[in-house]
Amino acid sequence: MARPEFKAIVVGGGPCGITAAYCLHLAGIDFAVLERRDSSFENVGASVVLSAPTLRVMYQFGILEDVLAIGCEIGAAKSFTADGKLMKSSEMFKRMKDNHGHGPVAYHRAQLIEVMYKRLPEEAKAKFHFNKKLVDIESNEDGVKATCDDGSTYEGSVIIGADGVHSRTRLIMRDMALKANPSASWDPELPYTATYNLLWACFPRPTEEMGQGYDTQDQDRSIMYVTGRDMAWVFLYKKLAEPTKGYVSYKQEDIDAVAEEFKDFHVNETLTVKELWKTKMGTGMTTLDEGIAKHWSWGRIVLVGDACHKFTPNAGAGLNNGISDIVTLCNGLREEIHADPSGNPTQNNLTKMFAAYQSSRIAGLQADASLSANLTRVQAWATPVHYFLSKYVMCSSLIEHYMVALFISKAMSTAPVLNYVPGEEPLKGAVPWTHPIPARVEKM
After folding, report:
1. How far is 83 from 204, CA to CA, in rounded Å?
2. Confidence at residue 2, expressed as pLDDT on a 0 to 100 scale
3. 95 backbone dihedrals φ, ψ, rounded to 5°
4. Distance between CA atoms of residues 150 and 36, nearest Å
5. Which residue of 40, 49, 148, 442 has the fewest CB atoms within a 10 Å radius of its CB?
6. Burial of 328 by CB count in 10 Å (0-12 exposed, 13-18 middle, 19+ buried)?
7. CA 104: distance to chain centroid?
8. Hey, which residues does 159 pair with through a beta bridge?
9. Is 229 helix (H, G, I), strand (E, B) or coil?
10. Three-class SS of residue 394?
């Protein structure tokens, strides 16, 4: 494979894959997106939350107004016991809005992906290829080739694995690395571990109030309840009997059993799970994998999002971190391409850039992984210490204020933006952004 013009092959056409399409298109980098399903926006999954840093990236994509029009800003936060007694009423989301110019925004996952995909320029949409399940990768000093299960092949300069928690790209990359060096220290085939599982359901919003982000707490069980613009979502968390690895297939009887176990739990002062379940429009059940892979790249292959790190969803950090991965990676790719006289960096230079990408992301990811894991366990009273933190520490408004200031806002303020897409700053708050959106340069 001779080195032609630089081209990225993106494996996965979900929210991270679509984000990569925007970033690569805006960078002027050719690409192809391979999606195993027949559409990028099948109605799978429940809700996702976009934080203020991610909304800044949506602004750079030119779609901020579009995504805000279908989402709902979360403003109210309360915690309850299973019998509906109020534990605390929090101003965390208000503090986040004051600090960063906007609170988190809740979406139905399929709806957000549909808007993101449909607002892509036609030239970029033409580079999506559906019903393309990755089965093999070839990589050498000059390029890569991805082979799909229908026999089709796609050649390029790099492969970006945006194919989620059960990433085929990650598995193939691991096999290639160990084949090249059998004594190499590498991540196991299954790098993540699940301690909890999750049953979710979506339904028409049952109350007039939008923008509620509530939780219900109990020993080894908890609930998240979110109300959006038209819909609402409930998430039922339960600790597993033993930690597990790999994909677990749940049947309808498993879903029914968990729903029955939670039926009398309150999600607010008056509503119970049983009442919500009567109007459910969709459900799903999964284990909640947690972990950060040690190896994100090899040769011309690199991973982003859930393919290289996975958190529990209580803190809403998963997709937002995946988008930050892609922004950081594409900033680096563009710089390497522009620095190379041929416009096609060598594998050695790409290897160094991939390492720098991982290095720049790891500290923030470790902090968010810790925050997510601890929040899950505090809300599920995993140990006496977690129970004490929930009942007597986290209920303190003063402590919450310092948590937001010292940890959450500090992390959010350092999130990356595309350093090659100029514009005005769409979100301003009390905390300045470490990485401002590049200013427009007036033409003389």
Report:
1. 23
2. 45
3. -65, -40
4. 11
5. 442
6. buried
7. 14
8. 9, 301
9. coil
10. coil
Q: Which helix (H) or strand (E) holds 204?
A: strand 193-204
Do residues 17 and 162 make contact, with C-beta atoms less than 8 angstroms apart?
yes
The answer to whether 40 touches 113, Cβ cutoff 8 Å, is: yes
- In sequence order, the 6+-apart residues with CB closer than 8 A to the CB of 251 are none
pLDDT digits (tens, 9 = 90+) for 271-328: 999 999 999 999 999 999 999 999 999 999 999 999 999 999 999 999 999 999 999 9
Tokens standing for 419?
Answer: 């350093």
Note whether 413 and 434 are within 8 A (CB). yes
> Distance between CA 307 and CA 435 in Å, rounded?
26
| DSSP 8-class letter at 133 | -
Distance, CA of 120 to CA of 67 (rounded, Å):
13
The first and second tokens of residue 232, run together, are 């609402």
The reply to whether the predicted model has a pTM over 0.85 is yes
Q: What is the DSSP letter of 380?
A: T
* Domains of the chain from N-terminus onward: 7-75+107-190+291-378 (3.50.50.60)
Element (H, E) at 80: strand 76-81
In one-letter notation, the amino acid at residue 344 is: N
- Tell me the pLDDT tens digit for each residue of 33-87: 999 999 866 666 689 999 999 999 999 999 999 999 999 999 999 999 999 999 9
DSSP H or E run through 318 = helix 318-339
Q: What tokens does 162 get? A: 């945006």
Q: Round the CA-based radius of gyration of the chain to a whole number and report it.
A: 22
- DSSP letter for 220, please: T
* Assigned token pair, 414: 């350092």
Distance of CA 387 to the CA centre of its chain: 28
Please state the three-class secondary structure of 117-171 as a single string: HHCCCHHHHCCEEECCCEEEEEECCCCEEEEECCCCEEEECEEEECCCCCCHHHH
Distance between CA atoms of residues 75 and 220, nearest Å: 27
> Which element (helix H / strand E) includes 398?
helix 397-403
CA distances from 282 to 44, 98, 278, 316 (A): 9, 35, 11, 20
